[in-house]
Amino acid sequence: MTRRAPFIVIEGLDRSGKSTQTALLLQRMKATNIPAQLVKFPDRTTAIGQMINSYLQSDSDLDDRAIHLLFSANRWELASTIEQLLNSGISVVCDRYAFSGIAFSASKGLSYEWCRSPDISLPAPDLTLFLDISPEAAKERGGYGEERYEKEEMQRKVGEIFRRIGREISADGGKWVNIDAGREREAVAEEIWKWVEGVANGAVGPSRRLWTDKLPVDDS
User: Taking every annotated instance into account, which residue ranges of this chain make up the domain Thymidylate kinase-like (predicted)?
Assistant: First the structure.
């Protein structure tokens, strides 16, 4: 059976330290001779990503459904690249993924099931690390409030939906780990590494797909 590299996703509330912890993890993986590459969503370098960036910076307004579909399209732009990297033995560390798309859009009142549907069949992570922090603690960190969704009540709703997603992913056989991100940076990094070490030697077999049991049934 073909062995591939693992797909690791780091999720979390805004200002939970995702980008910092992702950078530290990549440094540690490379220092231990584990080939790894960063993928970050939204990828603001593409044409779709530039539209998303304008929206997040509050420079433009879009319908909630339209921006949700743009976020999903941005992930699909890189889906084949992620699989190619994994199959070539390069681990992918992803800063935000489909789970963020659902959590933020559903927090604005859109149907949870509708929010999930555009991302059905995306590559599924082998490990998702959710950096959990209270909105009050996040507010104390530098830069809070600079982007559209960085409001305490919004972040509280987002956190609740993230936890729902985590329960569902775990029940479906995925690995979702909640990590207390309110601690010192080094303590969070050590816990992340403990979990990543467990999958760092590679995953066997083809990538799983997200939510394939939610695909519509063809009754024709």
Answer: 10-192
